[in-house]
Amino acid sequence: MNERDSExxxxxxxxxxxxxxxxxxxADVILLNTCAVRExxxxxxxxxxxxxxxxxxxxxxxxxxxxxxxxxxxxRGLLKNLPGLDLIxxxxxxxxxxxxxxxxxxxxxxxKALVELSSEEGSQNAISRHTPGKKPCAFVSIMQGCNMxxxxxxxxxxxxxxxxxxxxxxxxxxxxxxxxxxxxxxLLGQIVTSYxxxxxPVVGGKSPFVQLLEAVAAIAGIERIRFTSPHPRGFxxxxxxxxxDIPKLMPAVHLPxxxxxxxxxxxxxxxxxxxxxxxxxxxxxxxxxxxxxSTDAIVGFPGETEEDFRATAELFEAVRFDMAYVFKYSxxxxxxxxxxxxxxxxxVKETRCNALLDIMGRHSLARNQSYVGKVEKVLVEGPARxxxxxxMGHNPGARKVVFSGGADLVGKIxxxxxxxxxxxxxxxxxxxxxxx
Length: 436
Ligand code: SAH
Ligand code: SF4
Known about the structure:
Blueprint: H1 2-15, E1 29-34, H2 39-54, E2 63-67, H3 68-74, H4 78-81, E3 87-89, H5 97-106, E4 114-116, E5 137-141, E6 143-144, H6 155-159, E7 163-164, H7 167-179, E8 184-188, H8 208-217, E9 224-228, H9 237-245, E10 252-254, H10 262-268, H11 274-287, E11 292-299, H12 306-319, E12 323-328, H13 346-370, E13 375-383, E14 390-394, E15 400-404, E16 413-421, E17 425-430
Parallel strand pairs: 1-2, 2-3, 3-4, 5-8, 8-9, 10-11, 11-12, 15-17
Antiparallel strand pairs: 6-7, 13-14, 13-16, 14-15, 16-17
Helix pairs in contact: 9-11, 12-13
The structure holds S-adenosyl-L-homocysteine and iron/sulfur cluster.
């Protein structure tokens, strides 16, 4: 979501005459778009900003700004840690940054920071521009904010109440992306399964979100659709069947579970049980037997006992996730749960985290090895990070695939025979001749 916000801002700044530079040392403005979901992200952002501010004598004209969730949560308080900061901009004001920068450059160094944290009606519609040029895969923000109150989570505080963009605007954005060469869109929201619930009726048993998926699937040129994240509470049969009935909807779903213990789920204020989660998984596999399923889990949530943790480990064994992000609980001042309640020792969190990653790694490797010898359709995204002449893309199941090929293949969907597999990556060879 932050990546998408940053990209939309870069596109807006370009329209106002600013230019993106590759080299930090050449920049007149450096904006850090921050995350506040875990403490580590904040520590990193503050460290980076401090480093920039401390080296400012070399570049006295440099303006440094902090945007996004940490800016929203800490506001002016950031000036205590980071004196000299020029800009602090909350999550609903990012689109005003071009004007704010103009103001900063005009005001001839009064040394006063501009701080803008207010909420703004309709601000969800401002995250809509893309930088020009062809990109095979694009993110599209369909909504902002969240109305849940998960005990550990800072997001409702930093991103505000749930606000959806009109379906027609989202479709228009996807259509324009298709026209400029985008083949895959990932629809983004904190709980995409809630999309349009207040604004749109259910039609023929289909929720507004499924209606949106169908509308995006009707766009010529868009070949692949993904989304993140759905919530177990709103995951109904119509969405499971959409994976079967909409060929462009790729067979991979990221469905955060957080915990396999009903007691902990309740304490987290997550309104479902492990059994309900398993029912959704069964429903998905009933619709698409080999669908790839990934998740988020938190270990060391306050009060998590060995037994609670075992329930999560058992759920991991039962589901056989293809991929999982496992997080150690990080107390968030400003979240519903009192920060003082962090009572699971760090070493225990570490052990539990590694245990879940081990289970996941086993299942992920087994799935990846099952592709060896098969030909997978890969959307080529660009050069692989390592290796000359190597390309990188993803198969329908969202596994990363690396293979050799020419740069002219970027943006195409090509057949690749999978030769070997690790936990995270499939290696393969391009199957020639390419279909016309
Ligand atoms: N809206 C999504 C989650 C967004 S936050 C959902 O409800 O599924 C992304 C992930 O960060 C969460 O799924 C959760 O696993 C993790 N997370 C959020 N707050 C956290 C905290 N305080 N400590 C550790 N992990 C956290
Ligand atoms: Fe946070 Fe829960 Fe909302 Fe997800 S659903 S953003 S975890 S409050």
